[in-house]
Amino acid sequence: NLLYRPTGLWCAQPRWSAEILNKSDHHCHLYEGKNNILIVRRAQEFQMTLQFNQPVNPSDNFQIEFYIGKTFLHISTNVQQGDACVVGITPSADAIIGKYYTSVAVIGSNGISRTQKDSGTDFYLLFNAWASNDEVYMPNEEERQEYVMNENGFIYEEESGDGRQWFYGQFVEGILDACFQILDDSHMPLVNRGDAVKVCRIGSAMMNSQDDRGVLVGNWSDDYSLGTAPTFWLGSDQILLQYVNKGPVSFAQCWVYAGTFNTFLRCLGIPARVITNFNSAHDNTGNIVTDLVFNSVGNQLELNERLTRDSIWNYHCWNEAYLSRLDLPADQNFGGWQVVDSTPQETSDGYYRCGPCSVKAIKEGMLGYQFDAPFVFAEVNSDVYKYKLNSQTGKTELLSVDTTYVGMKILTKSIGETNEPMDITETYKYPEGSSKDEETMRNAERTYKTHLQYDDEQGVAMTLEIPQERVKIGQNFQMAVVFRNLSEDTRTIHGFLVGSTIYYTNIQRAQFKQLTFDVTLKPMETSRIQVVVLAQNYMPKLGCQSNLRFVVTAKSMENNQDMTAIQIIVVNGPSLFEQMSGPAKVNQEIFVKVEFTNPFPFSLHDVRMAIQGPNFISYREKLYSEISTGASITWIESCVPTRSGNTMIYAVLDCSVLGNVQGNWAVSVQA
């Protein structure tokens, strides 16, 4: 097994020391399917054994060579001598991550002998959040366990903390190779793969297929016939494995991008988490404010979609990666959590990507530091300017400014075995109206010159009051339009209410309710108009994402004051119910039952269901051609748990008129 064997000292094939193959010292023991392949983290020693034909002397000249592509890995070593030589190897803290192959070269008087390439001595090198000199170092062990090692996550879709379970699966067999293939497919130079900032930036671009045939194809319509509906995915592992085998995967929306990107980052060793920003602005004009232009149609206002380039999504998901940011001035202390977003919204340096962007820089309004800080700032802290278009002159008149609507709440999963949300809004911005908040806005406006004066003392205040933020599907409910006359004059109000079903991006799907009303208010008087919303009106209009939006526009006839108010309600759809046949034990068969009842006044057709549980039940799908009104279905599957401890079972149901039906259950498996 030598390319050339001299007459003096020579080395047989090297091998990894047996104790390192369990990888636990490097926190790599959970990677599946790699039992005989070494996986280690940089800036931390690992050992290999070299068997020579005779004892090694200090004068003997040999070297261990580690190759990735055509590049050498430079290391420090600690050699214990003898004919069986144990070598301690410590990759540098900025070493290139990837898959290496190994050879040993002995230099003698007659030439160089080299061991042949052997896959048994290949190894993977990852970032190291446990090493204080690695740029991804995270000092808290509890946080490292959550943000590097935890395979189970929760992605929030409601401010109340409801959302969807997500299986990251960074240790599933094949995922590590998939993540390195993504870097290869990006044509990222090997020399840059030791830089976590550059890896995050490339990963942000490669998670979407917009301009580089990356992992996921976006789709914000109701037609998913050529792929999988975004609401049907249970986790990232199926997506990444499909990408390796077939190329770009259809379809994704923001939480799918964020969940899959989180897997990529954690798998490579970068601490990462998924973030949800509620009332998330999309600043298309680059002025760090959100501009909405309305047409005046009779006595009501309608959004001018041609002139309104900005938008506000009900929520938007992105990722945070934990990095030291050595590329930014050290005195600014912009390390720590960084925004990285792979949903294709705007281009950055020619590609659809975003970040890494320092969360601290966003909070301070320091928008001149790379990458993409103005766009992220607008997502969480832009003011909303509402304008009315004058159809005669073509000019716009400023109606109102809302400084609190955007970035209403920012959530991520709490640490540990819980789905409870952690409110991290204060990491992105100071309390509204505080002196620090005003300083932040001055810093941002100094760069982008966006400040406009606005006088909001016009006499009448209008609000929409809804007793609950969500309703159960099939439930009737009430809301109230409230007018308060703050002036000393009588005011006559003409108003118009529109109820619509919408996508989570705030785009209208269908209208289901219209109402006009007139109110006369005496000075300082308050009037309430009760509005009844019937389930029979909104249920037929619901799609895969169940949100209702109510928009009220009104005009005070005496002084032409225009008013607008918007309220969004989440409709909680049906759930899946699960039952197990008994206690779960390792290597013992158990049956899992999933049940669903159709609550709609119409049949559901071509209904897909899927179930998966890490180390419990492999991914499985089932198709039902029809589920009649009020009918129930029961799906029973056999499974054999393979690992003791706590795990999750994920289940989902989807069809063309109903999505986001989930069931998730925590399971404790006994040894």
UniProtKB/TrEMBL annotation:
Gene3D superfamilies cross-referenced by the UniProt entry: Immunoglobulins, Transglutaminase-like
Entry-linked Pfam families: Transglut_C, Transglut_core, Transglut_N
Annotated active site: C254, H316, D341
Domain Transglutaminase-like per the UniProt entry, residue ranges: 246-344
Coiled coil region boundaries: none
GO molecular function, one term: protein-glutamine gamma-glutamyltransferase activity
InterPro entries given in the database record: Ig-like_fold, Ig_E-set, Papain-like_cys_pep_sf, Transglutaminase, Transglutaminase-like, Transglutaminase-like_sf, Transglutaminase_animal, Transglutaminase_C
N-terminal signal peptide: none
GO biological process, one term: blood coagulation, fibrin clot formation
Similarity comment: Belongs to the transglutaminase superfamily. Transglutaminase family.
Annotated protein name in UniProt: Coagulation factor XIII A chain
Source taxonomy: Eukaryota, Metazoa, Chordata, Craniata, Vertebrata
